Amino acid sequence: MLDDVKDDALKRLNYLAGHLDGVRRMIEADAYCPDVLKQTYAVRKAISKLETRILEGHLNSCVAEGIRDGRQEQVVSELMELYDVANR
Amino acid sequence: MLDDVKDDALKRLNYLAGHLDGVRRMIEADAYCPDVLKQTYAVRKAISKLETRILEGHLNSCVAEGIRDGRQEQVVSELMELYDVANR
Amino acid sequence: MLDDVKDDALKRLNYLAGHLDGVRRMIEADAYCPDVLKQTYAVRKAISKLETRILEGHLNSCVAEGIRDGRQEQVVSELMELYDVANR
Amino acid sequence: MLDDVKDDALKRLNYLAGHLDGVRRMIEADAYCPDVLKQTYAVRKAISKLETRILEGHLNSCVAEGIRDGRQEQVVSELMELYDVANR
């Protein structure tokens, strides 16, 4: 993983762990379900944002190198497999 | 929140925190990006599953009671707001 | 289906058919793939919007009546099945 | 667009137009809302499948060529913009 992507990803994960812990405290304190759900939606959005950064880094490093090195079929089929898993 | 939903939600959150920590370790160990992304997709799926349980409990408690108590407009508009936030 | 929801849904479907036909013409004219994809994303968003209207009507009619008529278990399990199909 | 992708896309769009027309007939015939929604979900899934084919063709043609021709920054930023629009 590219260094700046890695640093950013670790910061986001640290924040996500805190966010998820906040959801746990809400549930323990019997918060209103719709309020809990709004927070879990926000956690999922934040994970999507993290994924966007990782994917962009992947395209700009492994995918671009793979295509230049004659491994287009491999890197594209990996991308399509990811896309498939993400939308399953 | 209904007691069994609350117990289940807390167990799921505990598992999710561990899963997210596993993602952090993968990134620190410079795992291959597509492998990291497959794990973050799995975390998001697990959060969706948690949301399904919370939503079901909410429909069977607050929403059903609200409709029987003449507060249909309020509980339905809350549901639609949630739906909107989830799909934004 | 409630009358105003039905009218609205038919108008939206009519518009959607035209939008989808526009996508077909773009593909026939060899439009740039990202431009085609932006249009198919827009079509899917428009279908989601249609679904929101139908779901809201359903909650305000069949679901609310079902709960008042003692068929809570049935209408909630139908909703959860829908939710499951939508997120599959 | 690659020829085989174009042929496949036009076939899928033709089928989609018929599916959408079926949804219109269901609504006109006052079908049960959950049954209508299951069909609109299926239409959206089918559009997603079409998008997968178009995206794969795009990666294997314009994106791969762009990267080999020194336009990596342009093709990757276009992909990320698409990704962003899709998840908005």
Structure summarized in a few sentences:
The structure is a homotetramer of 88-residue chains. Chain A has 88 residues and is mainly alpha-helical.
- Main sheet attributes: strand count, strand direction, barrel closure of chain A: none
- Counting copies of identical and different chains, the oligomeric state is homotetramer
CATH class of chain A: Mainly Alpha
Number of strands of chain A: 0
Number of helices of chain A: 3
Please tell me what the overall shape of chain A is.
elongated
Low-confidence stretches of chain A: none
Overall mean pLDDT of chain A? 96
Structural description of this entry:
The structure is a homotetramer of 88-residue chains. Chain A has a single domain (3-86), classed as Metal-sensitive repressor, helix protomer (Methane Monooxygenase Hydroxylase, Chain G, domain 1, Up-down Bundle). Chain A is mainly alpha-helical and 88 residues long. Chain A is elongated, with a radius of gyration of 17 Å. Chain A is built from 3 helices and no strands. Chain A has helices at residues 3-28, 33-68, 72-86. The longest helix of chain A has 36 residues, at 33-68. In chain A, helix 2 runs antiparallel to helix 3 (72-86). Chain A binds chain B through residues 1, 6, 9-10, 13-14, 16-17, 20-21, 23-24, 27-28, 30-34, 36-38, 40-41, 43-44, 47-48, 50-51, 54-55, 57-58, 62, 78-79, 81-82, 85-86, and chain B through 1, 6, 9-10, 13-14, 16-17, 20-21, 23-24, 27-28, 30-34, 36-38, 40-41, 43-44, 47-48, 50-51, 54-55, 57-58, 62, 78-79, 81-82, 85-86.
